[in-house]
Amino acid sequence: MLQVVLQREVLIFDAGKSTTGGQILFLSGQVDDRTIQKYEKEAKDKSRESWYMAYIMDTNEEERVKGKTVEVGRAHFETETSRFTILDAPGHKSYVPNMISGASQADIGVLVISARKGEFETGYERGGQTREHVQLAKTLGVSKLLVVVNKMDDPTVNWSKERYDEIESKMTPFLKLSGYNVKKDVQFLPLSGLLGTNMKTRMDKAICPWWNGPCLFEALDAIEVPPRDPKGPFRMPIIDKFKDMGTVVMGKVESGSVTEGDSLLVMPNKTQVKVLAVYCDENKVRYAGPGENVRIRLSGIDDEDILSGFVLSSIARPIAAVTEFDAQLQILELLDNAIFTAGYKAILHIHSVVEECEIVQLLQQIDPKTRKPMKKKVLFVKNGAIVVCRVQVNNLICIEKFSDFTQLGRFTLRTEGKTVAVGKVMELPSGSNF
């Protein structure tokens, strides 16, 4: 019988994620015992015994010395029904832009929460990184979330049901507020990333008598990723480019499909290009559909004429290129003493675009309870407000209305290293396609 293998991108983020990612690769046979022994010795020599699993994902020296992921690590593993790409996103505040590029490629998020006393609370409090990461993941299109409560083996926790329930009950309202449908799109499960407990096989009742749910691999296999349209107009935001027998661009196909020989447009500079070859992972393929991360070799354009944030697009229905648009924004938490009003400036992150922007006009405030526009004129808003406003950028950017292409129509606003608002594109100026 032919086994159908689904390709899925999994973003692992927050506390203990590199260890969990490393353990996944070990348990799925991607790393052998000798390599693990080498990492154990390396970690021991640095007096970091418990970090050895993280070394599988954290390959550069800076990451190993600091114990922090800097770049988005990529690795692959397979279960019986699916092929997964793990994206190990940086957790530390200074590396959030790198996390954004990882999140924009993922369908499934694995949010790793530490059960250890004090660690969960630090990440979860106002301004903590857990909050920011969840909001970013949702905004960037990570539609399904597995919340793994890690370090359950820690002596301060000892597989306590009370501690697990406490974390679940505190996280649930926040996940709802971030836009997740907790019943449909979120699943919690306990595990130990360091020991590999409840990861590939269900855990022994002797360890944790109260847990009757699946292990991590089962839960990942069971997630249904929302479908994308293989017949829609082609859209692929470019996250990177390089020279290799022509110009090669990298990104995730968000809509439509691409075949060797296709003619496409690079937007916003409207350059017509021809597809010479398509690669998934290291393999050359004839065809790639939506949801796949690909490298495409092009003729007709020089790599110097392409920037991250440009979009490879269908010629018949090109993506819009604009310098202003109307958006609905949810204000999360402004910096101290900041007022959100016309003239407010921030950094806009939308798919692979990073661009300075200015709010030029507040159009209307939305009542958070009724979700209906409020009658009064709006001059400024505070934390927690929902507001429709006009956003302006200096350079042409490629975006879509949220209602047409959710992946290309949602964004975050950041300032001074902090996410202050999440938003969706509501209207584009008429005639913005060409």
Q: Which architecture of the largest domain per CATH? A: 3-Layer(aba) Sandwich
The CATH class label of the largest domain is: Alpha Beta
Strand content: 35-45%
The CATH topology assignment of the largest domain is Rossmann fold
Organism: Salix brachista
Domain Tr-type G: 2-228
GO molecular function, one term: GTP binding
Protein name: Tr-type G domain-containing protein
Question: What keyword list fits this structure?
Answer:
434 residues, alpha+beta, Rossmann fold, Elongation Factor Tu (Ef-tu), domain 3, 3 domains, six-stranded mixed beta sheet, 10 helices, 23 strands, disordered N terminus
How are the SSEs ordered, and which strands pair?
Layout (H helix, E strand, L loop, with lengths): L5 E9 L2 H11 L5 H13 L8 H4 L3 H6 L6 E6 L3 E7 L7 H8 L4 E7 L4 H6 L4 H11 L4 E7 L10 H17 L4 H4 E5 L25 H7 L12 E9 L3 E6 L5 E2 L3 E5 L3 E10 L2 E3 L1 E2 L4 E7 L11 E3 L6 E12 L8 E2 L3 E6 L2 E14 L13 E2 L4 E14 L10 E6 L2 E10 L7
Parallel strand pairs: 1-3, 1-4, 4-5, 5-6
Antiparallel strand pairs: 2-3, 7-8, 7-15, 8-14, 9-13, 10-11, 10-15, 11-12, 11-14, 16-21, 16-23, 17-20, 18-19, 18-22, 19-21, 22-23
